[in-house]
Amino acid sequence: MDNSLPAVNIMGVRIHNVTMQEALAHLSGMLSRGERGYVVTPNAEIVYLGRRDEAAREVLNGAALSVPDGIGVVRAASVYGTPVREKVAGVELAENLLPELVAQEKSLYILGAKPGVAERAAKNLTQKYPGLKIAGVHDGYFKEDAEVLPGIRESGAAVCFVCLGCPKQEFWMRKNLEASGCCLMLGVGGSVDIYAGEAQRAPKIFIRLGLEWFYRLLRQPSRIGRMMSLPKFLLLAMGDRITGKKWSDEK
Ligand code: UDP
């Protein structure tokens, strides 16, 4: 858990109250100092999980950086009377870190998604960021950690994007960060699909209006069950506000 950054507490889950620039500066400092840590990017669904499940909450609160990835988390922060400055999307944070990796001459490993996707993401990212070194890639459908850990370690990657879906990736990072030899791990879910061109982000207008979730719902109606956690989440936050419930994020 990092105490050097300002943070708010949402349902027991620590969310750092940082701008994209501050988040990047923090990660680039950790990278240059060789400080090890993992990054989580909670949306409403993940914070809601943290509220219910102590093990998930501990993993989230053990992150070196935890940024509000969704509009639901940003809104809930305001409901609790502790507004955060901005939404910091994991997909953008991870990509914005790449020029820093190039500048520091460090390499990236991409772990996750269906076979072939991480390769395509690596190809697109190296085209977009000349000088970016990809240490290796592996799909996210391995059975044993031992199938991928030695490869990550031997690759010498300083940063690993871990895209195994939530909460698998968060638990995976905490368990394996040390053994991987990486300095930073970022749990950034479906980002690899976006870098690979397999999935598209919502048009900017949806993002600006805080309706990215709605766009995703239109594209993938099967997500409706998962997305019902968003209104539930905001109602819970309002209920806490009315009853004056206090949350602690101390482990
Ligand atoms: N994924 C994976 N291994 C798994 C489960 C999921 O690599 O065991 C990948 C999946 O292919 C996708 C990414 O994790 O590329 C994010 O999955 P999903 O959209 O379900 O998760 P979310 O980020 O929305 O929680």
Can you tell me about this structure?
There is one protein chain. By secondary structure, the chain is an alpha/beta fold. It has one domain (7-242). It has helices spanning 20-33, 44-52, 54-61, 71-79, 90-96, 98-103, 117-128, 149-155, 168-180, 191-195, 204-208, 212-219, 224-227, 229-243; strands spanning 7-10, 13-16, 37-40, 65-66, 107-112, 133-138, 159-163, 184-187. A six-stranded parallel β-sheet has the order 4-3-8-7-5-6, sandwiched between helices. Strand 1 and strand 2 (13-16) form a beta hairpin. The longest helix has 15 residues, at 229-243. The termini are close together. The relative contact order is 0.17.
Helix and strand arrangement:
Layout: E1 7-10, E2 13-16, H1 20-33, E3 37-40, H2 44-52, H3 54-61, E4 65-66, H4 71-79, H5 90-96, H6 98-103, E5 107-112, H7 117-128, E6 133-138, H8 149-155, E7 159-163, H9 168-180, E8 184-187, H10 191-195, H11 204-208, H12 212-219, H13 224-227, H14 229-243
Parallel strand pairs: 3-4, 3-8, 5-6, 5-7, 7-8
Antiparallel strand pairs: 1-2
Helix pairs in contact: 2-3, 4-14
Q: What gap, in angstroms, lies between the N and C termini? A: 9 Å
Q: How many strands appear in the DSSP assignment?
A: 8
Beta-strand proportion: 5-15%
Number of continuous helical runs: 14
What's the SSE pattern? EEHEHHEHHHEHEHEHEHHHHH
The side-by-side strand order for the widest beta sheet comes to: 4-3-8-7-5-6
What structural class do helix, strand and pairing data support?
alpha/beta
Count of separate structural domains: 1
Low-pLDDT stretches: none
Alpha-carbon Rg, integer: 17 Å
Which geometry do the CA atoms define? globular
- Give the overall average pLDDT: 94
Bound molecules: uridine-5'-diphosphate
Helix content: 40-55%
The main β sheet shows up as: 6 strands, parallel
